[in-house]
Amino acid sequence: MGIIQLQNIKKSFDENVVLKDINLSVGKSEVVVIMGPSGSGKSTLLRCITFLEEPDKGVIRLGENEVTAGNQPNKQRKATIRELRQNTGFVFQQFNLFPHRTALENVMEGPIVIKKMDRDQAKKKAIALLTKVGLADRMDHYPAQLSGGQQQRVAIARALSMEPMVMLYDEPTSALDPELVREVLLVMKDLAKEGMTMVVVTHEMGFAKDVADRVIFMDDGVIVEEGSSQEIFNNPKEERTKQFLQDVG
Ligand code: ADP
Ligand code: MG
């Protein structure tokens, strides 16, 4: 059974049906890359996993925490969603760092505020994580003093500081100048090698070929096809996948 399990997820915004009936299971240490045209529902799907968007229907399970969409909110449900979120590291296209905190302070924040870790311990941990993402010499810089690639690496370190069960990335390199993409992908690749479970929305085919255990092609709110990167890139079965690969390739 998967560490992430999505069953029959449906989501509409008014009359716009954005997720039609999504079933997805992600195994422990698996790296799943999601591709698809703009507007196909990729971000909404990631956001539904952590209830940043509430699905209209379906069941979401992350580890032990299972939530059914559309249930009346109650205390227990809220607590489960909170736990589910704490077990998920989310990295967005826009890095969303606190602008008035240094890189180090950004990474210390979650463990101190949410995990009630003591400051010295949180600092030690943050230093280790920033070193891991190659920013040992930038810890005291503010976001504005860092390049986009450096800011995104801080964002990854910040997500890791909560020791998530899974990492979700929504087009983590799309806002970056081309020369900064590689350094972020390398950090993600290292994490994958260490066994981190990851769901990555990206159009970086090189990354998908190198790192993905499975590539999912989404269009118009459905999973059109999925397979190894080899299968999807070299031998797509569906017309929509072929068209998309022609357009991005
Ligand atoms: P993708 O990430 O694949 O580009 P999205 O999940 O962002 O796609 O969007 C899918 C569809 O849902 C789009 O038609 C978009 O306009 C719509 N949508 C996304 N978020 C909202 C929202 N908060 N309110 C209304 N419509 C939304
Ligand atoms: Mg998106």
Automatic annotation (TrEMBL):
Keywords: ATP-binding, Cell membrane, Membrane, Nucleotide-binding, Transport. The keyword Transport applies. It is a peripheral membrane protein. GO terms for cellular component: plasma membrane. Its main location: membrane. The keyword Phosphoprotein does not apply. It is found in: Cell membrane. It holds the Pfam family ABC_tran. One of its GO terms (molecular function) is ABC-type amino acid transporter activity. InterPro entries: AAA+_ATPase, ABC_ATPase_HisP-typ, ABC_transporter-like_ATP-bd, ABC_transporter-like_CS, MetN_ABC_transporter-like, P-loop_NTPase. It comes from the Bacteria. Residues 4-245 form the ABC transporter domain. This is Arginine ABC transporter ATP-binding protein.
